[in-house]
């Protein structure tokens, strides 16, 4: 079991994960934060401002890097005292590989890439994991911890990590853009903006929950919405013309995925 996780950089993503763990009933004492400017920590969670304070406490057996990938090179030297041989280094840093983590924190017990999304806050995030150097026990400990935030899985091929990041880590951003565009389109065609947003959000929520609960795939479900000779087919035809939506999303995921390699190169 991971007894104490030190979250180094607790912004949007680290904060969402911490909120998810606490909402699931985890003991706040199981977590500590190292963040120089975070206004406050949740009740019961220790907040350190400087690495030396966390080092002196020496209470953690894993750290989770929640700062930006572009900060790895400058911050790693100051974190060596927190990443000794009994400590597992977990990283949220998009693009940064296990080999780069191992080079940045060579003394650590093992290295884990973790890719959640913001739905961790409500324990509904996929969490993709990739490790280097972990034994079976440490693998199980990681899976158990991250599974609390939704569904955690090990990826067996790190070459695909940036692609799953684009799909599952960045994915909520694309879905939010879609909901916004759906509401915007209805507004342009005559609906009040507030009503359009409410209807678009409720529709995506219901459609997603139904798909998650259904044995049928999303392609089949789309066809079930389209009554023969009815209205929906006309709209699907617009999305399908020249595989317009498919092509747009291939380009969207490609651009997102490729930025991962760029971030890795800069680190
Ligand atoms: N946002 C998302 O949906 C996802 C993000 N990620 C990854 O999570 C990481 C964080 O992203 P995100 O949460 O969006 O970014 P944020 O900017 O919200 O969070 C980064 C946090 O790190 C803090 N920080 C800055 N410098 C230090 C330091 N020297 N020591 C400790 N903490 C520091 C920041 O403080 P301050 O604000 O004061 O600078 C901030 O609280 C990235 O590596 C990203 O790739 C992964 C999956 C999804
Ligand atoms: O935009 C980013 O780089 C991070 C990684 C996945 C989601 N947010």
Automatic annotation (TrEMBL):
<dbReference type="InterPro" id="IPR000304">
    <property type="entry name" value="Pyrroline-COOH_reductase"/>
</dbReference>
<dbReference type="GO" id="GO:0005737">
    <property type="term" value="C:cytoplasm"/>
</dbReference>
<comment type="similarity">
    <text>Belongs to the pyrroline-5-carboxylate reductase family.</text>
</comment>
<keyword id="KW-0560">Oxidoreductase</keyword>
<dbReference type="InterPro" id="IPR028939">
    <property type="entry name" value="P5C_Rdtase_cat_N"/>
</dbReference>
<dbReference type="InterPro" id="IPR008927">
    <property type="entry name" value="6-PGluconate_DH-like_C_sf"/>
</dbReference>
<keyword id="KW-0028">Amino-acid biosynthesis</keyword>
<dbReference type="GO" id="GO:0055129">
    <property type="term" value="P:L-proline biosynthetic process"/>
</dbReference>
<keyword id="KW-0963">Cytoplasm</keyword>
<dbReference type="GO" id="GO:0004735">
    <property type="term" value="F:pyrroline-5-carboxylate reductase activity"/>
</dbReference>
<comment type="function">
    <text>Catalyzes the reduction of 1-pyrroline-5-carboxylate (PCA) to L-proline.</text>
</comment>
<dbReference type="InterPro" id="IPR036291">
    <property type="entry name" value="NAD(P)-bd_dom_sf"/>
</dbReference>
<dbReference type="Pfam" id="PF03807">
    <property type="entry name" value="F420_oxidored"/>
</dbReference>
<keyword id="KW-0641">Proline biosynthesis</keyword>
<feature type="domain" description="Pyrroline-5-carboxylate reductase catalytic N-terminal">
    <location>
        <begin position="7"/>
        <end position="85"/>
    </location>
</feature>
<dbReference type="InterPro" id="IPR053790">
    <property type="entry name" value="P5CR-like_CS"/>
</dbReference>
<protein>
    <recommendedName>
        <fullName>Pyrroline-5-carboxylate reductase</fullName>
        <ecNumber>1.5.1.2</ecNumber>
    </recommendedName>
</protein>
<feature type="domain" description="Pyrroline-5-carboxylate reductase dimerisation">
    <location>
        <begin position="158"/>
        <end position="263"/>
    </location>
</feature>
<dbReference type="InterPro" id="IPR029036">
    <property type="entry name" value="P5CR_dimer"/>
</dbReference>
<comment type="pathway">
    <text>Amino-acid biosynthesis; L-proline biosynthesis; L-proline from L-glutamate 5-semialdehyde: step 1/1.</text>
</comment>
<dbReference type="Pfam" id="PF14748">
    <property type="entry name" value="P5CR_dimer"/>
</dbReference>
<feature type="binding site">
    <location>
        <begin position="8"/>
        <end position="13"/>
    </location>
    <ligand>
        <name>NADP(+)</name>
    </ligand>
</feature>
<keyword id="KW-0521">NADP</keyword>
